[in-house]
Amino acid sequence: MTASSRATTARDARRHNERAILAALRRAGTASKPEVARQIALSPQAVNGIFEKLLQQGLIREGGRRAGAVGHPSTLYALCPDGAFAIGIDIGPRFLEAVLVDFTGAVAYRALTDFDRPDPATLRAAFAEGVAAVLAHVREAGIDRARIAGIGVAEPAFIAEPAATAGALEEAAAQWRGLSLDRVLPEFDGLPVHLHRGAAVGALAMAMQVEMPRIRDYLYLAIGDTVDSCLVLGGAPHGGAQGRAGRFAALPAPSGLTVGAVAGFAALRGRLTAAGSPAADLDDLYRAMNEQPKLVAAWSRAAADAVLAGVQAVQACLDLEAVVLQVDPPNAFGDRIEARLRDGLARLPSLGLAVPAIRRLKPQPGSLAGAAAAVALHERFAPRLDRLTRQGPEGGGAQSGGPPSAPSRGGRT
């Protein structure tokens, strides 16, 4: 190994240890140096030096003192909220939400941009408007822009899977066939863009919002205007060899269509419009549902059966622990889906299959955009073991000790 390679390996190991300390403090909230040293298996001397560096760079702060059984009280440390920030973007069929999240994950600013149709040109303009609003707040609040880690984006299913979209979104989704979102979004002075499937970001939001049991293998299923999903195996999103695993919306439904074409609210909007009860927004949707109860009941049964068939197929192949279900807006349809799943899955033992638990989540405003921002923070500050295996200048990567640098635009992930 050359002297340059040894220096690079030592630098990568030091950066990994810095990130490991930050991750340990994020999990614990507050902790002493000895507690962190035990968690990440470093010597007290090594931890002490890294703590001093992180304190100087403003990434951590003292968080009080704790009386010990013997000796002097221990000084506690925590992440500094102003140590770093990230921008999160949630793209819906008729809105774009942009948030600024601090280093602890708290939302510091929120901006909404409404639009009529999610075509590429409209979303590009909405993205630019939303990020510009956040950056204007950054300037007004006196936040050092160098501390913004990047932009996390939750990619909606109607862009990622336009062929599985139907009803009111079908025309808009058709414009995204063969066009990737990362090629449409504008750049912002070197801020890296971390693009992830919306359901993968939603799975992260779930972990941030609620105390979930230690479920390692599950299907995260979000039903809104479209059907989005994420397959989580071993506690991490699983994309498969080509990055397309867990595309639940593309599964065939009993009707012969796809699950996404049957079960999303866009499909219901399409049916209501054809019946003379258009539903452009949420209030219109509830009104139209009251005007067309038989149509809604028929669609609801078809949607519930489509979801059940898809879950049964997934369970037969993967033997999952749970299905995490989120329905937005949370109305009686969500209750019907959940009840249909429980009744149908209860018959799985007769087929020699295990019954997965069903866990219902209620969507929270801003949660998906906030989780997308957390992804950008994670990309910048989480431990990266792969850095330790690289040699030469290309292995240096982005520094984790100080304020974020301005790396080149990130790609689709």
UniProtKB/TrEMBL annotation:
Compositionally skewed regions (Low complexity) per UniProt: 401-413
SUPFAM superfamilies cross-referenced by the UniProt entry: Actin-like ATPase domain (SSF53067), Winged helix' DNA-binding domain (SSF46785)
Signal peptide extent: none
Pfam families: HTH_24 (PF13412), ROK (PF00480)
Region annotation Disordered: where it falls in the sequence: 384-413
Domain of life: Bacteria
Record-stated family: Belongs to the ROK (NagC/XylR) family.
Protein name as catalogued: ROK family transcriptional regulator
Gene source species: Marinibaculum pumilum
Taxonomic lineage from the root: Bacteria, Pseudomonadati, Pseudomonadota, Alphaproteobacteria, Rhodospirillales
